[in-house]
Amino acid sequence: MKILISADMEGATGVTWPADVLPGTPQWERCRSMFTSDVNAAALGFLDGGADEVLVNEAHWSMRNLLLEHMDERVQMLTGKHKSLSMVEGIQHGDVDAVAFVGYHTGAGTEGVLAHTYLANSITGVWLNGVRASEGLLNAHVAAEYGVPVVLVTGDDLTCVDAEGYAPGARKVAVKDYVSRYAAVCRTPARTAADIRAAAKAACALAGRRDPVAGKTFTIELEFDAEHLAAAATVVPGVAASGERRVAYTSATMYEGIRTFKAVTTIVSAAVEEQYG
Questions:
Q1: Could you tell me if 233 and 267 are in contact, meaning their C-beta atoms sit under 8 angstroms apart?
Q2: What's the CA gap between 100 and 154, in Å, rounded?
Q3: Interatomic CA distance for residues 263 and 120, integer angstroms
């Protein structure tokens, strides 16, 4: 049994503030250990439950945040940027039996601690086939295309609610309770590590490859906080204006869909100007 852990940071234990997740800040240095604790706890739980292999894919910002030296020696970690499938890189090789979303968060334009979708700001909403989409929802569709079930989701309490929409059977662990975008009632690392480890062990019973989902098309629509960002996004082939500050595109597969999404967000990020956005 091989488990892939997609590890994001905004939904990690103790994280509530932008500086907590921005590489190079003192608060980021402090929160890295709690992020690592969450991920290591998930890995230990999967190993407790019978997994033969756990691969952790770093999915936050620079994708160089976790402290490898504090991970269990049986874990392997994929670290660094510029990966074909970004947050779920590694799922495409046909040897992953389940995926866990650890440290996830809610989507742009919704309630949730540090809520966003790919870009911290600029994107005010994302919809997949008309349904408001978080990173979890987008990545779950990529996983389904490869026949890989989502078996564990951790983050704030609203992230767990969001996950009911895309992985209703998965185990969920809330490491904190939403108060505002920048505030939460947090549990201690010792408590969240125990909760995550127990949930991951139980989640092993849900692992096992499924029939890949095929034959669907995916229309993704994005809304931005400024008109010039929508205009910049239309540079990507197939992406067209769909409304005020909105663009949309349709892909024959979610593999293509998420890669186009990456292209759009990369171009939009480069078009954001200091102060005025």
A1: yes
A2: 8
A3: 16
